[in-house]
Amino acid sequence: MSGIKTEIKAEVRQFIEKLPPRQQEYVLSRLAEGKDAYITLRQSGVCPRCEQEYRKIQLKFNKCNVYFYIYHGDRRCYVGPENYIYVSFMNSFIAPLHGAIKAERVLRYIERIRINIKAIEDIDTLERILEELTDLIGVIEYHINDLKHS
Question: Is pTM beyond 0.90 here?
C-alpha cells in the first residue's frame, strides 16, 4: 500500500497517519480502490453550524481532503473540509484555511494576521483593527470566565 500513499495529498496522508492502524488500513484500501472512505467517531460537543449538541462525527476521506459531518439524531450538518485547499490558494495571506472542527485554527489565523498587519500603512485601518481586537479581548475574557464557572 505504500505506493498508494504517494497519490494521496500530504494533508490527507498526515490525517490518516493519526488514525488507529485498523482505520488507517481501511481508509487506504478504500482510497486505493478509488472510493471514498467513511469513519464515524463517537464524540460529543456543539455543532459549529447549527449550535445543537451532537454525539457523533463522520469523516469522509478522499485522496484530496477530509470532510466533516456532524450528526444530531436523524439530522446531519456538513461542517466543512479539514483544509480549504482552493480558497487557501486564492487567499494566501491567511492560508491555509482550516475547517470548523479545528479549534487550533484560530491561533494559526492570528499568527498569519499578525504577519500581515505589519504591511498595513493606513492609520485609519490600523485603528479600526485595534478597536476590533480590543472588543475581541473582552469576548475572550468573558468566555474564559464563563468556562471557569460552569
Answer: no
